[in-house]
Specification:
single chain, alpha+beta, Rossmann fold, nine-stranded mixed sheet, 12 helices, about 25% helix, globular, binds S-adenosylmethionine
């Protein structure tokens, strides 16, 4: 039984713009496996088409990301695995990225991260399959996508390989759509895009695992730059995944290390991340502290504890949040990471609490990444040097 190929977009009321016909022509469910793991408020759940056909259709038509591979394919069984490594992106996220891409008839597009093949099929429906190339690192994922594309009657070029290298054979491209998160923009994408062309991708520092969609316009001089639009959360390219710090490397032995510095803070967890988990304050802090990671421990009452770990040295910090403006702070190592977060937060407040869309990114001709606020001539400072 076929049920409502456009339901995810219709239900959310997101305007479907000039992509409407493509979304109608290419139903998402053709690209979903028999067993899949949609994201819910409580985490990922297993949905099997054989065991629960109604549930499968409901989730296939829902506006949620659906994991289709765990642990680079080493996962077995039907329970969710440890790390989501391939997925069908959330339909509204796909549409918003397509809108950012601002394609025109006949535009030649390179997609990085084929995944299920659904985006490549949508691009093919909109632009013609001869204009679409998509690169997927994982051989099994790429093969599965090719099969689904065949069933859907679409035949874009699917390349198995490292998308960080682009696909020079098909260059130059008018548009590059990246459906997997990056910390560093590879020069190859810029070099393979026509001057005046556009690259859209989820980009973020290692601080939070979050990213924001950025739209880079490629200039004649080999630079690329543009603004962020909104927060998102995409899995990262395989080689830029975060190696999560080992707690014992930072705090060896029992109890607090001898150099632990204690203080209190009036800054609350809600001022940093708010309920959405996609707060502009958190994004701003991530830009000022690109060389550290943060994590939160939550309780049913909300955020309880925040941890920060330096990525370039063994600095660490933790905050036990309480209700009365006097949360306990413990910090150790050469840097005082919590002090840096406070400085970064103050910097953001003093600039009028700018949203994601006020920040931008430039990639220089020699590959350096410069984040800015308002305009390219106003770089966002790295906070570490200011507070040491
Ligand atoms: C979120 S999924 C893409 C979703 C896809 N656009 C769709 O419509 O289903 C991200 C994909 O990027 C792939 N990937 C990760 N690192 C990559 C790399 N270096 N080059 C190409 N693909 C990569 C993953 O294997 C995964 O399939």
């Amino acid at each position: 039984m076929e049920r409502g190929p456009r339901d995810p977009l219709v239900e959310t009321g997101v305007p479907t713009s000039d992509w409407e016909a493509a979304f109608e022509a290419v139903p998402r469910h053709l690209f979903l496996p028999e067993v899949m793991w949609p994201a819910t408020e409580e985490g990922h759940i297993t949905v099997s088409r054989a065991d629960d056909p109604d549930g499968w259709w409901r989730w296939a038509n829902a506006d949620v990301p659906i994991v289709t591979q765990w642990d680079d394919g080493r996962h077995t069984g039907s329970a969710p695995g440890a790390l989501a490594t391939s997925s069908s992106s959330m339909p509204t996220a796909v549409l918003l990225m397509f809108d950012e891409l601002s394609v025109f008839d006949g535009a030649k597009v390179l997609e990085i991260g084929t995944g299920t093949g659904w985006c490549a099929a949508l691009l093919s429906a909109r632009l013609g399959e001869a204009n679409v190339v998509s690169v997927e690192l994982d051989e099994t994922v790429a093969d599965t996508a090719r099969k689904a594309l065949n069933v859907a009657g679409r035949h874009p070029k699917i390349v198995t390989g490292d998308g960080l290298l682009g696909w020079p054979e098909g260059a130059p491209y008018d548009r590059v759509l990246v459906t997997v998160g990056v910390h560093e923009v590879p020069r190859a994408w810029i070099e393979q895009t026509r001057p005046g062309g556009v690259i859209v991708m989820p980009w973020g520092t290692r601080y939070s695992g979050q990213n924001a969609i950025v739209r880079l316009a490629v200039a004649d001089d080999g630079t690329a730059g543009g603004r962020f639009s909104r927060a998102t959360r995409f899995m990262h390219v395989r080689s830029q995944r975060l190696e999560w710090p080992e707690f014992d490397d930072y705090l060896p032995g029992e109890g607090w290390p001898a150099d632990t510095r204690r203080s209190v803070t009036g800054l609350s967890a809600a001022q940093i991340v708010d309920e959405s988990d996609y707060a502009a304050s958190d994004f701003a802090i991530s830009l000022l502290l690109p060389d550290c990671v943060r994590t939160f421990a939550r309780s049913p009452q909300g955020l309880q504890t925040m941890w920060l770990f330096g990525l370039t040295d063994r600095s660490w910090a933790t905050v036990y949040f309480d209700e009365d403006d006097s949360s306990q702070v413990y910090q150790g190592g050469p840097r005082s990471l919590w002090d840096e977060v406070e400085t970064a937060h103050r910097w953001w407040v003093e600039r009028g609490r700018p949203g994601h869309e006020e920040f931008g990114l430039t990639v220089t001709a020699d590959g350096r990444q410069e984040v800015w606020l308002g305009e390219p001539s106003a770089p966002v400072p790295c906070v570490a040097s200011a507070v040491r």
